[in-house]
Design goal:
The complex is a heterodimer of chains A (314) and B (161). Chain A has 11 helices and 12 strands. Chain A is globular. Chain A is α+β, with helices and mostly antiparallel strands. Chain B is an alpha+beta fold. Chain B folds into 2 domains: 76 residues, Beta-grasp domain (Ubiquitin-like (UB roll), Roll), CATH 3.10.20.30; 73 residues, DNA polymerase, domain 1. Chain B is built from 5 helices and 5 strands; from the N terminus they run E-E-H-E-E-E-H-H-H-H. In chain B, helix 2 crosses helix 5 and helix 4 crosses helix 5. The chains are: A alpha+beta (314), B alpha+beta (161). Chains A and B meet through strand 1, helix 2 and helix 6 of A and strand 4 of B.
Chain lengths: 314, 161
């Protein structure tokens, strides 16, 4: 499929990228690995005038330990991060979600920042322009009605990052740099909950770093998928536990992950969390498995993830 | 629209081209350099038919803008072996009958080559995992995995000789 006409600019540093963003009235997209963005542009779901390549920015490629955090540059590839020893030893939930993300070749190209900021997906959205126009534009395309849920007021497209779930379970934060300066927020705060505009990032903001508290944890990641390679999660559950407390994060259903704290873990408490998550999850008919099955699997995978996390090292 | 000048090595040959900024590497390799062993199938980064090796890493060329690969070294299927002196993977694919329609083959071989280059003795599990990056719609995966296993052994013998 042919790309539309656009300019290409390679940024040398973050301020260079932001300056270019500002000079074009925001009609540009930042490019990292391109495994999410290029298909979106090919399908005309994103129509930038220019693309700013961030791959040349050295400071976005580093992994370093500082002041109680592991700081991961947004342009570190998923494959490189998976092979990082500290990730393997300290953050098993993240290691496992990285390992099951898409496939090896795409892990070598895709970056952790791009993986977190990937657009939400829907069976009726990620289609060719001709298909979409024939069907009628949906809410996420700027149309009047949802093509999945009649009379829906909001968009139910699914957020399909595996690694954002494990990072949320690990209480990660992100450092954002934009035209208005720099800020650090909790990762779960970047989700708006509205599938039309899934992120709360300000225009022109760049995700520079992901920061994880550098404490050892036990963890697991469970992914519901049909091919076991290349595919997106139809449901993903990450659990991360430190001593007797932890967090569970559920994604792949709806435009933002669900997050639950785990306190004083025992058989009863984690069944409660599983039931709560299953009740909260609102799957709709916008992917390949039925909503009823996915809803049921939320409870199953939450319990499985917590059990596996607890079993780790035993 | 303004063109961009890019220079890179393809199969050890230096190439300088003026390309459109929105041209994909797949288009450049096929249409400008006649390297039609690079196949276009899904064009969305899902199938792996357009895989080439860029700086040692397998890459889906349909997802890459040509200006992004300025200064790199690229290997395509045309560059990994010559008639009479084929790459062990090419030999093994023929010997094991790992080719049906042949459309996924160049991507499969290059993905496997990148694996054998970084891991001299991959286990069957590792091979399956790597090969799962590519789709074969004839579903001839079993023979492909066998061929990669055989090529790994062959390569080990060759490098010990």
């Amino acid at each position: 499929m042919i790309l539309p006409k656009l300019e290409y600019k390679k940024a040398q540093n973050i301020s260079d990228a932001i300056a270019f963003y500002e000079s074009t009235n925001g009609q540009v997209r930042y490019l990292a690995g391109g495994t999410d963005l290029i298909p979106l542009v090919k399908l005309r779901l994103s129509t930038p005038k220019a693309i700013i390549d961030l791959k040349g920015i050295e400071e976005l490629k580093a992994i370093s330990r500082r002041r109680g955090w592991l700081a991961i540059g947004a342009n570190v590839t998923l494959f490189e991060l998976k092979n990082n020893l500290m990730v393997r030893e300290y953050f098993p939930a993240l290691y496992k979600s990285l390992d099951v993300t898409s496939c090896e070749t795409l892990q070598m190209r895709g970056t952790i920042g791009g993986n977190i900021l990937q657009d939400t997906r829907c069976l009726f959205y990620n289609k060719s322009l001709e298909w979409r126009t024939a069907r009628g534009l949906c809410l996420k395309m700027g149309g009047e009605k949802c093509n999945v849920v009649p009379n829906a007021k909001t968009c139910f497209s699914n957020y399909c990052s595996d690694n954002a779930l494990s990072l949320v379970a690990l209480s990660a934060s992100v450092r954002l740099v934009g035209p208005q300066g720099e800020r650090k927020i909790k990762l779960e705060k970047i989700f708006s909950g509205d599938g039309r505009y899934p992120f709360t990032l300000a225009p022109g903001e760049i995700l520079a770093e992901i920061l994880i508290p550098a404490q050892r944890s036990k963890g697991a990641y469970e992914k519901l998928r049909v091919r076991d390679s290349i595919d997106y999660p139809l449901l993903g559950v990450a659990a991360s536990i430190k001593e007797n407390n932890g967090k569970v994060s559920v994604g792949g259903i709806g435009s933002a992950p669900l997050v639950y704290n785990l306190k004083n873990l025992n058989d009863r408490t984690f069944k409660e969390v599983a039931e709560k998550a299953s009740a909260h999850a609102k799957p709709v008919s916008n992917t390949t498995l039925s909503p009823a099955y996915r809803k049921k699997m939320v409870g199953v995978l939450v319990q499985r993830a917590i059990k596996k996390a607890l079993m780790e090292g035993k | 629209m303004k063109t961009t000048k890019v220079t890179f090595h393809v199969n050890d040959e230096k190439v300088t081209l003026k390309v459109k900024p929105y041209e994909t590497l797949l288009e450049t390799l096929r249409e400008r350099l006649d390297l039609t062993g690079v196949k276009e199938a899904c064009s969305m980064g899902a199938c792996g038919a357009c895989t080439v090796i860029v700086n040692g890493i397998p890459l889906r060329s349909c997802l890459v803008l040509t200006p992004e690969v300025d200064g790199t070294s690229i290997n395509t299927i045309e560059g990994i072996g010559k008639e009479g002196n084929l790459h062990p993977l090419q030999e093994a694919f023929m010997e094991k009958g790992a080719v049906q329609c042949g459309f996924c083959t160049s991507g499969m071989i290059l993905t496997a080559k990148a694996l054998l280059d970084r891991n001299k003795k991959p286990t069957k599990k590792e091979i399956v995992k790597t090969i799962s990056s590519n789709i074969c719609r004839c579903t001839g995966y079993k023979k492909i995995v066998e061929a990669v296993e055989a090529a790994g052994k062959k390569k080990a013998v060759k490098s010990n000789a």
